[in-house]
């Protein structure tokens, strides 16, 4: 769903605008290339999800010369109520990059809201390069505008502290120390027991948060939760960059907006075979994959062959 940083920026901006348009309260979010999670308080889940997905799908389809629905037909949702249930949901969503092995701490992963809370106490209030107001339209969905008081970073990302209800989230965590503790907390039975004592709702767990993700591996996520990042494994963003910038143009040399969706299934499969052969020589740091390893599932995913 997100092939590069620009897509992730647009993904968050679409989410932020959807919250504004549906009068919803956005509490936290976490994006990875295949999907995203968010914690939101809304009076109309369907309207919120539709506004978010429709805007991003139009952007993605136009950019990559693609047609049709993007993502699953139905959006997975989980209702939470109570301080412990809400805090646990926030923990897992904010730490999504950590659980998927993309960063050693939540704060080291840029595509989540980890650095938006307790900014002053945690020294996160440094200067930010802002986008010129006249250029903001480039980073927004078609025919969408940003409220005058809102600003973007130079990369086009709407400032998260202006969109997220940080005051509410900080009340849930109470103190910066507890927030840091929760961001480093290991998943265990105590988390489940805290929620069970609060109300009769099912406890929020890694399994329930990621229920809509078919290939999610809980055991791998628990290992990643300890900050163990496999730096020899290429990320989806890195692989998508190689495919989009180096391999697709070999087939579409005269096309300005080259896209994998303009290739036939057999052409994409041919690229997949080539990447798999390259992966067998991953020890070569001067090769296409720079010495990193990739998986067959990852190849199919990044080539839209699934």
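Q: What amino acid sequence fits the structure above?
A:
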């Amino acid at each position: 769903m997100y092939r590069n940083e620009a897509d992730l920026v647009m993904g968050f901006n679409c989410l932020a605008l959807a919250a504004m348009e549906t009068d919803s309260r956005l509490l936290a979010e976490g994006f990875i290339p295949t999907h995203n999670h968010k914690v939101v308080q809304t009076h109309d889940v369907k309207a919120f999800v539709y506004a978010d997905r429709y805007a991003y799908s139009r952007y993605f389809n136009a950019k990559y010369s693609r047609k049709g629905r993007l993502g699953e037909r139905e959006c997975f949702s989980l209702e939470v109520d109570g301080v412990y249930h809400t805090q646990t949901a926030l923990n897992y969503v904010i730490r999504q990059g950590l659980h998927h092995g993309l960063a050693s701490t939540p704060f080291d992963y840029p595509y989540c809201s980890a650095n938006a809370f307790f900014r002053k106490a945690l020294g996160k209030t440094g200067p930010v390069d802002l986008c010129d107001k006249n250029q903001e339209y480039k980073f927004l969905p078609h025919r969408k505008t940003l409220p005058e008081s809102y600003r973007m970073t130079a990369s086009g990302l709407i400032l998260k502290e202006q969109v997220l209800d940080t005051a509410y989230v900080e009340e849930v965590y109470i103190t910066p120390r507890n927030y840091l503790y929760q961001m480093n907390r290991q998943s265990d039975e105590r988390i489940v027991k805290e929620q069970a004592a609060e109300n009769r709702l099912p406890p929020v767990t890694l399994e329930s948060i990621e229920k809509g993700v078919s290939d999610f591996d809980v055991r791998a996520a628990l290992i990643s939760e300890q900050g163990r990042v496999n730096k020899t494994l290429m990320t989806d963003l890195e692989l998508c960059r190689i495919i989009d910038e180096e391999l697709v143009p070999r087939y579409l040399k005269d096309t300005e907006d080259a896209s994998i969706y303009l290739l036939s299934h057999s052409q994409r499969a041919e690229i997949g075979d080539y990447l798999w052969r390259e992966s067998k020589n991953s020890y070569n740091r001067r090769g296409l994959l720079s010495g990193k390893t990739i998986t067959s599932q990852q190849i199919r995913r990044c080539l839209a062959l699934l």
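Q: And what stands out in the fold?
A: DSSP finds 13 helices and two strands in the chain.
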